[in-house]
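Here is one chain, start to finish.
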Amino acid sequence: MGLCVCVCVGGMGALVGVAMAIEDNYSCVGGEHTAQRGDTVWGVVAGRCSGNRQHAYDDVVAAHPHIEAWGMAQGEVIVIPHSGG
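Its structure:
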């Protein structure tokens, strides 16, 4: 009986770990994006990505440390990753 409980608890722990890992993932319509007037990094990520958009946003900002998070200059080009996690 005790072995059964241990196996069940271990299995549930593994499922929770997998679920958390999946939640951290995102997928995007990746590639270059040329900013239009009024574009923000968050707006671009929200429009092109699904899944954990915060993680996608963090990856874009990390890859482009020169961009201003609250707005981009018109014509500025950023690269959106296809996926991450």
